[in-house]
Design goal:
Layout lengths: L6 E2 L5 E2 L4 H42 L1 E2 L3 H4 L3 E3 L6 E12 L4 E4 L5 E6 L6 E2 L4 E6 L1 H27 L6 H26 L4 H53 L17 E5 L4 E6 L6 E2 L6 E4 L3 E9 L11 E5 L4 E9 L9 E9 L10 E9 L6 E4 L4 E3 L2 E7 L5 E5 L1 E2 L6 E6 L6 E3 L3 H16 L1
Antiparallel strand pairs: 1-2, 3-22, 4-25, 5-14, 5-18, 6-13, 7-9, 7-12, 8-11, 9-10, 11-13, 14-17, 15-16, 15-18, 16-17, 19-24, 20-21, 21-22, 23-24
């Protein structure tokens, strides 16, 4: 039998022809290669299921299957709105000092009647208090004397202005008439040549003197007396008006000229200067009062003030126009800061902040204690914000539990910023719009740890 020159080995290489021993070696090599292939295949077939189980366990370990409603887990959506800083301070409801007036007598006396009680609403011009004052009666007497002097001054002026009975004027007029007749007669004699020329000069001089005297008596003297009479009349008028204004300022009753003594000249009436509520009453009927001592306080309570004592550390966030919520016993009322006191109380290290509060129905009482809540924008970085309760710590790292579409919760590590007002900025790890566990997330953490410890055991 003829042996070929070259034969191809099972490994695909061409070898030179060999004898029977070579064939044996070739068979051994092929057998060993087969055995190695079988061992390798068997190892891979036994390892793959174990690794698959391990990866599945790891996946199961990072997800939690739980009924969130039954477990009391609250699910919220990750938002993008930055939180606000909220703090509350004590405050007191006070009347609007710009809409507050006191009722004060300008004379001393005794309260005869008081017509309002504490808390009454009064209209502008309403009679509040009537006082009996001797000082007012004295002023009325002075007014009567001034009126009498005024009438006499008017009569004197009228008399002075009547010139018909003035003796000096009549005497000067008679002298002037006589001088005029003498001058005419002298001129007639001169024309007839019966007297000298010097007599005409003398007659003319006498006439001029008489005329000048008459003019003086008629104009100069009369005008002087009229001026004096007018000055006396003006003085009497000024005095009368001064006393009347004084009585009017005292809220005294000024009767008409025809009224006579029908009214009591010792009484004054105090009326409300504005519409509002009586918030203070200091006297009762029969009490003696001093000049300038307040008797009542009227306040317009449609707009009230709330004075809040804000700590020094929070003043940087408060300014005129800042919103505030005044928390009363039965309701919360929104308001705005209208004034910030630039002075700081050195004892309490607080500053007074004023909030204007609308009170159209007058249901908020002056003096009520309140809590004032201020909301200011917080300084926070990040585009996603989650509640503080949503962030848990696992193995020293912050995580959140994201609800998957399957309904299970997936543990996800996050990078967070500084919490503010109950919200935590998330720098990475979750996106806006994803749903996460908030209140009750510690239940998921507890279950995660139990499952993890169980696997390790």
């Amino acid at each position: 039998m003829q042996v070929p020159e070259e034969i191809e080995s099972p490994l695909g290489t061409k070898e030179p022809p060999k004898n029977g021993r070579g064939w044996l070696i070739t068979a051994v090599v092929i057998g060993i290669a087969g055995i190695l292939c079988l061992v390798l295949w068997f190892g891979l077939s036994t390892r793959a299921p174990n690794e698959h189980v391990k990866e599945e366990k790891e996946a199961v370990g990072n997800t939690i299957d739980i009924n969130s409603a039954a477990a009391g887990v609250q699910v919220v959506t990750v938002g993008s709105q930055a939180p606000t800083s909220v703090f509350t301070v004590a405050g007191t409801v006070e009347p609007n000092q710009q809409q507050l007036q006191q009722v004060t007598p300008l004379v001393a006396g005794r309260v005869e009647n008081i017509y309002v009680a504490l808390g009454d609403y009064v209209k502008a011009g309403s009679l509040l208090v009537r006082i009996d004052s001797p000082q007012v009666a004295e002023q009325h007497g002075k007014l009567h004397e001034a009126d009498t002097r005024l009438r006499l001054a008017q009569i004197n002026l009228d008399r002075v202005q009547q010139t018909a009975n003035r003796v000096s004027v009549l005497k000067a007029k008679a002298t002037l008439d006589e001088a005029e007749s003498t001058l005419k007669r002298t001129k007639l004699l001169i024309s007839e040549g019966l007297t000298a020329r010097k007599d005409l000069v003398a007659a003319q001089s006498e006439y001029d003197r008489a005329k000048a005297d008459y003019n003086f008596q008629k104009d100069i003297s009369l005008n002087r007396e009229v001026a004096v009479a007018k000055a006396e009349l003006q003085t009497a008028q000024t005095e009368t008006e001064h006393i009347r204004d004084s009585l009017k300022a005292m809220d005294a009753h000024l009767g008409s000229k025809n009224e006579g003594a029908e009214h009591d000249i010792s009484k004054i009436e105090l009326r409300s200067p504005m519409s509002g509520t009586v918030i203070e009453r200091f006297v009762n009927a029969g009490a003696g009062v001093e000049q300038g001592k307040p008797l009542l306080t009227i306040a317009n309570t449609a707009i009230l003030w709330v004075i809040a004592n804000v700590p020094e550390t929070q003043m940087a966030t408060i300014h005129v126009g800042s919103p505030a919520v005044v928390k009363l016993a039965n309701k919360d009322v929104p308001g705005r800061v209208s004034y910030v006191d630039p002075r700081l109380n050195e004892d309490t290290r607080t500053s007074r902040v004023r909030i204007e509060l609308a009170n159209p129905d007058n249901k908020i009482q002056v003096g009520t204690f309140a809590q004032v809540e201020f909301r200011t924008p917080a300084i926070a970085q990040g585009t996603a914000f989650v509640p503080e309760a949503a962030v848990q710590t696992v193995e020293g790292k912050p995580v959140v539990f994201v609800k998957a579409s399957s309904g299970k919760f997936v543990v996800r590590q996050v990078q967070i910023g500084t919490a503010s007002s109950g919200m935590v900025p998330v720098l990475s790890g979750v996106r806006v719009g994803e749903q996460i566990a908030a209140n009750g997330s510690f239940v998921l953490k507890s279950k995660l740890l139990r499952e993890k410890f169980g696997d390790e055991d």
